[in-house]
Design a protein that fits this description.
Blueprint: H1 7-46, H2 49-82, H3 85-119, H4 121-124, H5 126-155, E1 160-162, E2 168-170, H6 173-177, H7 182-211, H8 216-250, H9 252-259, E3 271-278, E4 283-290, H10 293-299, H11 320-349, H12 357-366, H13 369-385, E5 388-390, E6 394-395, H14 405-435, E7 449-450, E8 459-460
Antiparallel strand pairs: 1-2, 3-4, 5-6, 7-8
């Protein structure tokens, strides 16, 4: 199956495969944890039962997604020892403490309060339950902070020295943690997580509105998701622009690959919208481009010069085709999110937000696109860093453990089989949970119909008919 592949190529494929499965769950749980905190706070503030219904509905989905994220993340740590032991040895003095901080300050925080958030409302009271929910949301953000610090240091290393053993040795932890690309990457990733969650929530809300336009919880979740899109999507585009300028400063070869600039442009570079990268001839075939726009975007001047890959040694060039297309997928989906949010805003002002089936179908179609955008962004970032694991300092070929290609191939096949069965089943289960209409929670404190503000009764709190926590 993998005849002709080197151990390095197989190890890279294996890590890419496992991290691709893993990254979609934290991207979802980061945004969903914050969404749960907002729902819970609104329930305590207004006592509008719709918020409580949605909190109970989405917390179960969060629990499954969180568990799948934890399981998929464990596997990656083992690969550092099996396939990338040289990388672990050389970067361990810097990256090891950062990973430990993530576990101690973030994951323990999430896990410690998760049980209270899921099962503790009637046991600890509303205030402590709200505190626990907030801590879970804060923990997910802290976890993202440490992980993005690790990844950003690999992209823009700073604050280190090299000891006699060839290891990276920390000299300034402030510069290591807050390396040059860290603020931009953290902002970009957190906003991506919020957009991913908003698309999922909006897609689920749109699905249930297509079935029942009067479904009060579906209306509320769809409305909140569309507000999030129209607010966060423009911020993400702005953050992406700032991130691109930072990347041009510190990783110019990556930007050259993203833009498809094989040649330098001393009098202003065009923005290549589409084309086919030709690695042999070092050009973009059938390019559709807008003159000078790339210089305007990256340097904010129409005629600003931009270097091309002709200034980079061939052995230091990233794979252009992959980076070129993954970047366009990410950007295209970003503008699609903005378009969906703008469409919803227009229908809201027209008083037709819940009476536009075409909009609801578009929301369902866009539901998984946040995950696609996150994966495309990750591919752009990681493949664009090649051929280095620590940019400009440690090459990928020098980071590999002394493993044979057949051994890596065997473990890769095992991962593929197990992941598709385990996480395939988990994903199907999540989709089935989302497919069900919002259920009314058993409060245990009152009888009679549960009402939402300005609506008719949604359901009767029958303990035998409605599962409790």
């Amino acid at each position: 199956m993998f005849d002709g592949f080197t151990a390095e190529t197989l190890a890279r494929i294996q890590f890419a495969f496992t991290v691709s499965f893993h990254i979609i769950f934290p991207a979802f749980s980061i945004g969903l944890a914050s969404y749960l905190a907002v729902l819970n706070a609104n329930w305590l503030r207004t006592r509008d039962e719709t918020y409580l219904i949605l909190f109970t509905y989405w917390k179960k989905i969060f629990a499954v997604a969180f568990g799948m994220g934890v399981v998929s993340g464990i596997v990656m740590s083992y690969q550092f020892g099996t396939n990338w032991s040289v990388f672990s040895d050389k970067t361990g003095p810097v990256l090891g403490p950062l990973m430990a901080y993530e576990v101690l300050s973030a994951f323990f925080l999430e896990a410690g309060f998760l049980g209270i958030m899921l099962f503790g409302r009637e046991r600890v009271g509303d205030k402590l339950h709200m505190f626990a929910t907030t801590m879970v949301a804060f923990g997910t953000l802290m976890s993202a902070t440490w992980i993005l610090s690790v990844n950003s240091w690999m992209q823009t290393p700073a604050g280190y020295g090299i000891n006699a053993l060839g290891q990276f040795e920390p000299e300034d932890w402030w510069k290591i943690v807050f390396n040059p690309s860290f603020p931009y990457r953290l902002t970009h990733m957190v906003l991506a997580a919020y957009l991913t969650t908003a698309l999922v929530v909006g897609g689920v809300g749109g699905l249930h509105l297509l079935r029942n336009r009067e479904d009060a919880p579906a209306r509320r979740m769809f409305s909140m998701a569309m507000w999030m899109l129209i607010v966060v999507a423009p911020l993400q585009i702005l953050a992406g622009d700032m991130h691109g300028i930072n990347t041009l400063e510190h990783q110019p070869a990556k930007v050259m690959a993203m833009e498809g600039h094989y040649d330098s442009h001393p009098d202003g570079a065009p923005l290549i919208l589409f084309g086919i990268p030709n690695a042999e001839e070092k050009r973009i075939d059938y390019a559709v481009q807008i003159p000078y726009l790339s210089s305007m975007i990256l340097k904010h001047h129409w005629d600003a010069p931009l270097d091309g890959l002709d200034t980079i040694p061939d052995e230091d060039e990233p794979p252009v085709a992959i980076v070129f297309w993954s970047f366009r997928v990410m950007v295209g989906l970003g503008f699609g999110m903005l378009g969906l949010g703008g469409w919803a805003l227009w229908r809201r002002f027209r008083g037709r937000l819940y009476a536009t089936p075409l909009l609801h179908r578009a929301a369902v179609l866009m539901g998984p696109m946040g995950f696609v955008a996150v994966l495309a962004g990750w591919i752009t970032t990681e493949v664009g860093r090649q051929p280095f694991t620590v940019y400009g300092v440690l090459r990928t070929s020098d980071s590999l453990a002394p493993v044979s290609a057949p051994a890596v191939a065997a473990s890769l096949i095992a991962f593929i089989v197990v992941y598709f069965f385990v996480f395939g089943a988990g994903t199907v289960y999540l989709l089935r949970m989302m497919n069900k209409a919002s259920a009314t929670p058993r409060l245990g404190l009152r009888d009679g119909p549960i009402r939402t503000a300005g609506t008719t009764p949604i359901a009767q709190t029958n303990p035998e008919a409605i599962p409790g926590e």
